[in-house]
Specification:
Organism: Xylanibacillus composti
Largest sheet: none
Number of helices: 14
CATH architecture: Orthogonal Bundle
Radius of gyration: 19 Å
Number of strands: 0
Protein name: Putative membrane protein YkvI
CATH superfamily: Hydantoin permease
Keywords: Membrane, Transmembrane, Transmembrane helix
CATH class: Mainly Alpha
């Protein structure tokens, strides 16, 4: 019984970290849901189901491959998937992508401060950078602990938002919303979204899989994490659909949905959005620094500082501009990586 209890606790930590890594700036703010799902109208419910299935199967497979091969970094895993030379090139490309997306996370934090707290955009950036330096001094354990607190709170607030939506006049919009998008784009959407997020999440999922001794915890955690991501995607889509098309004008659309709850609950939710952005940000910085550290002979704290300075520079371009430009482009490129992950034999 004690072993089973430890397995369940470890599985929940894995699930929450998996969800917290994927549920980042674009997801928690609502921008990602709008870009990849809600804009496609009634078809979004089906594409979300497809994405959830892919997250369950392939997220678990990714961690099990790392577990069975004891890979120290995602570069080693990519070497296994693509061969040594191609794997090296892909790993370097993914590091560039990871850097770009981490900059998007930082820009999202700045937008939260500016749009909802009435504070300067730059203040949000600096606060996030300083908090990251403080947290990452404790390594992977800090990431697991932060996600174990933030993700359950995000699920709770998501349930509140869905409950509000059910009572609103636009409750059934998600089943009637029209779209003139071509069918091929709708079909590719869940695959691009999953490919992009899993290709980046490997920076955290690979170390988790390699370091976790309990294989059953990985299997259970991957399943729960994938289902949880699907649930939050669908909940966000239902809530955003009820406010279409007006909600598209906001940088942080999910933050506007809780406006009827009153000032304090709205503020609490916006703080939670910031926390979700932050969990993905610190996970990405950790993965990027760990990967670079395996190649560059540099003091880890100094390397982390240099990464953060680079993210700060790129984040000056703004959140929605970075999200709308970088995410679809990186998602398409990540499709090749996803295809190789699917092709590899599932660990027994």
């Amino acid at each position: 019984m004690p072993n089973m209890k430890r397995t369940r606790v470890a599985a929940l930590q894995i699930a929450f970290t998996y969800m917290g890594t994927v549920v980042g700036a674009g997801f928690a703010t609502g921008q990602e849901i709008l870009q990849f799902f809600t804009r496609y109208g009634t078809a979004a419910a089906v594409t979300i189901a497809v994405a959830s299935f892919l997250f369950v199967k392939l997220g678990t497979k990714l961690m099990l491959l790392a577990h069975d091969r004891r890979t120290a970094s995602f570069e080693q895993l990519n070497g296994y998937l693509f061969g040594e030379r191609a794997g090296l090139l892909i790993s370097w490309f993914l590091m560039i992508v990871l850097f770009g997306v981490t900059s998007v996370m930082l820009a999202g934090a700045g937008s939260v401060f500016m749009e909802h707290f009435g504070l300067p955009y730059q203040a949000g950036l600096v606060f996030t950078l300083l908090l990251t330096l403080l947290i990452l001094r404790r390594g992977m354990n800090a990431i697991l602990e932060v996600n174990s607190f933030v993700v359950p709170m995000m699920i709770l607030f998501t349930l509140v938002i869905v409950g509000m939506t059910v009572l609103s006049p636009g409750a059934g919009q998600w089943m009637k919303l029209s779209s003139d998008a071509p069918l091929w784009r709708v079909f590719l959407s869940p695959f691009i979204y999953t490919a992009f997020n899993l290709a980046l999440a490997q920076a955290v999922l690979v170390p988790i899989g390699a370091e976790m001794k309990d294989r059953r915890a990985i299997e259970l955690g991957g399943m729960l994490g994938g289902i949880g991501i699907g649930f939050m995607l669908l909940s966000g889509h239902i809530a955003l659909s009820a406010q279409m098309p007006g909600v598209e004008q906001y940088e942080i659309p999910m933050g506007m949905l809780v406006h009827p709850l009153g000032k304090w609950l709205q503020l609490s939710y916006v703080l939670l959005i910031f926390c979700e952005i932050f969990t993905t940000f610190i996970a990405n910085v950790y993965g990027l620094t760990r990967q670079l550290g395996s190649r560059l002979r540099m003091d880890p704290p100094l390397l982390t500082l240099l990464v953060l300075i680079g993210c700060f520079a790129v984040s000056q371009l703004g959140f929605s501009m970075l999200l709308g430009t970088l995410y679809p482009l990186f998602g398409v490129v990540s499709m090749g990586w996803l295809a190789m992950l699917i092709a590899r034999k599932q660990p027994a």
